[in-house]
Design brief:
Number of domains: 1
Strand content: over 45%
Length: 124
């Protein structure tokens, strides 16, 4: 199952940076004698998670978008993000734009509008 909080993510949702993250930080320092000193540390928090809802196959409803925006507007609030068998505690990443949505179709009533876009999260 793929969920953010109580929201079930639509089929076709993509986690675009899922395999672009390393849980190890490394800093290299060069010594005066020409050698190197490596500092390595495992990272436990701060993994970026970008969820994309593509225009052609992963749509969100107006109420889904409103819920996501309401969640993002609560400072420092954490949510459970489920991706198949993995669970993460996340917050909306406000160092980047936390969300971006564009309307696919404009119906007479906004409640029927559908959207695509993306959400930027970070593990806490």
């Amino acid at each position: 199952m793929r969920k953010l909080g109580s929201l079930t993510l639509p089929e076709g949702t993509q986690w675009t940076d899922q395999f672009g993250y390393s849980p190890v930080q490394q800093v290299l320092k060069r010594t005066v004698g020409g050698g190197i000193i490596l500092y390595n540390q495992a990272l436990y928090k701060g993994r970026p998670i970008t969820l994309e809802f593509e225009k052609n196959y992963a749509w969100l409803t107006y109420s889904d978008v409103q819920q996501i925006i309401n969640w993002a507007n609560v400072p420092a609030q954490s949510y459970i993000f489920q991706w198949d068998t993995e669970d993460y505690i996340v917050q909306f990443n406000h160092t980047d734009r936390p969300y971006e949505f564009l309307k696919i179709w404009n119906y007479e009533t906004p409640d029927n509008d559908i959207y695509y876009g993306k959400i930027n999260l970070i593990t806490t």
